[in-house]
Amino acid sequence: MMNKEELGKGLGLLGEILKGKGIEVPFRLLICGGSALILSDLIERITKDVDILALGYYDSSGKISFKHPELISPEFQSAAGEVSDILGWPKEWVNLGPADLMRHGLPKGFEDRVLERKFGPVLIIYFLGRFDLIHLKLYAAVDQGPGKHLEDLLKLNPSPNEIKSSSVWAMIHDSSPGFRLSLKQMLEVLGYGSIAEEL
Fold first, then answer.
1. Long-range contacts made by residues 19-23, C-beta under 8 angstroms, separation at least 24?
2. Fewest CB atoms within 10 A around its CB: which of 20, 24, 29, 46?
């Protein structure tokens, strides 16, 4: 399990190893989950991994955009493996676990809310903004039930408008009656009954 200091150390080491391999084009990674919450100083806790959501690219206008990562290059995987060996971390400490969310789309305008942090010249990490993390955490809390996702959501202290936006977005990702029912039940328990009635 990693805290903020350990995450920073691991990503810094990853950046150094990538640079040592002669990488010239920076890896630009959009991350979410616990590591994004921790490194953005939104929540103080520990996590077991770094969840890569997308890879970043600059378009012709010079604006950053993000795409679903079909795979991570062998050079990156090798460098991440070296970090796990040096620090004694699991091999999958950095992974593409939540990347399929990119196929369905993130909240509109998320690119304008990301936070950027460089870990050396060839590793640039983008964290989802608070508004967007609330959306993902609500979706995950309903999908997976009570646990860390719900705890994170409550610590983010979302406003009613943020909960409503997150609920609408979540139902786009899962339009099944069962998900909608679970979402409404959770909102009622959390004190957002009026929003649940609108869904």
1. 19/120, 19/121, 19/122, 21/75, 21/78, 21/79, 23/75, 23/122
2. 24
Quick: pLDDT tens for 163-183. 999 999 999 989 999 999 999
pTM, entire model: 0.93
Question: Closest Cα partner for 127 from 4, 14, 20?
Answer: 4
Residue whose pair of structure tokens reads 């991350």 in the numeric block:
31
Q: Name the residue among 11, 198, 173 with its Cα closest to residue 89.
A: 11
Q: Which of 143, 151, 196, 129 is nearest to 173 (CA)?
A: 143
Looking at residue 70, what DSSP letter applies? S
CA-atom Rg of the chain in angstroms:
18
Residue 70 above 80 pLDDT? no
Q: How far is CA 102 from the centre of its chain?
A: 11
Distance CA 100, CA 102 (A): 5
Neighbours of 73 (CB within 10 A): 12
* CA atoms of 8 and 57, how far apart (whole Å): 23
pLDDT tens digits, 121-135: 999 999 999 999 999
